[in-house]
């Protein structure tokens, strides 16, 4: 399997990115517009958060998903017998946010959201119609809180690298922002 390494600044980036997704399910995007300094700042600030006692002030309530999840709450992957070794924080723009870490989390969230919205336009524009005619959009008539709960990740600030399977691609950014 050849996963394409796509230069975001290249004129044919939208086509190459979509082609790699269609053929392999993956693509590596380089020279993208997310500034590396904000990623480094996020990692540093959250590293300090996870080493602090402040994390215990953000345990989730019974009704909400935002907040700190300790090692004891780690999941076990499907088919695995051993729990993941991770602690993490579910960060949402509308949730509880640690003061010292939230500016970097918000910056990465906004940058990632903007890039994701652009990449979705690339996919839409470069997918053959026989496939794209089956694309669907969420029901935007539903209350915004429904969309918040649909994406259980937000911008998870995790002490372990991992990927999320959202299943809510195509949500318009303004839908979140207007709530």
| Count of structural domains | 2
Order of helices and strands: EHEHEEHHHEH
Q: Structural class from helices and strands?
A: mainly alpha
- Average pLDDT figure: 79
Per DSSP, the total helix count is 6
How many E strands? 5
Query: In percent, how helical is the residue content?
Result: 25-40%
Low-pLDDT stretches are 144-179
**How many angstroms separate the termini?**
42 Å
Strand order of the largest sheet: 3-4-5
Superfamily (CATH H level) name of the largest domain: B-lactam Antibiotic, Isopenicillin N Synthase, Chain
Classify the beta-strand content into a percent band.
Answer: 5-15%
Radius of gyration: 18 Å
CATH topology of the largest domain: Jelly Rolls
Sheet with the most strands, sense and barrel status: 3 strands, antiparallel
The top level CATH class name of the largest domain: Mainly Beta
**Overall body shape:** globular
CATH-level-2 architecture of the largest domain: Sandwich
Q: Would you kindly provide a brief summary of this structure?
A:
With 179 residues, the protein is mainly alpha-helical.
Question: What does this entry look like structurally?
Answer:
This protein is mainly alpha-helical and 179 residues long. The protein is 40% helix and 8% strand. The protein folds into two domains: 1-32, no CATH class; 34-177, Sandwich (Jelly Rolls). The chain is built from six helices and five strands; from the N terminus they run βαβαββαααβα. α1 links the parallel β1 and β2. The longest helix has 27 residues, at 99-125.
């Amino acid at each position: 399997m050849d996963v394409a390494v796509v230069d975001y600044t290249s004129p044919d980036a939208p086509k190459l990115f979509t082609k790699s997704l269609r053929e392999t399910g993956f693509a590596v995007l380089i020279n993208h517009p997310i500034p590396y300094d904000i990623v480094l700042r996020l990692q540093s600030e959250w590293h300090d958060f996870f080493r602090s006692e402040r994390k215990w002030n953000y345990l989730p309530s019974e009704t909400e998903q935002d907040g700190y999840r300790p090692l004891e709450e780690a999941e076990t992957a499907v088919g695995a017998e051993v729990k993941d070794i991770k602690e993490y924080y579910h960060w949402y723009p509308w949730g509880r946010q640690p003061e010292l870490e939230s500016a970097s989390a918000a910056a990465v969230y906004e940058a990632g959201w903007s890039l994701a919205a652009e990449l979705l336009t690339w996919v839409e524009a470069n997918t053959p119609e026989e496939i794209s005619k089956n694309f669907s959009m969420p029901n935007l008539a539903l209350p915004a809180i429904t969309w918040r709960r649909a994406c259980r990740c937000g911008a998870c600030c995790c002490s372990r690298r991992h990927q999320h399977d959202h299943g809510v691609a195509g949500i318009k950014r303004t839908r979140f922002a207007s709530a």
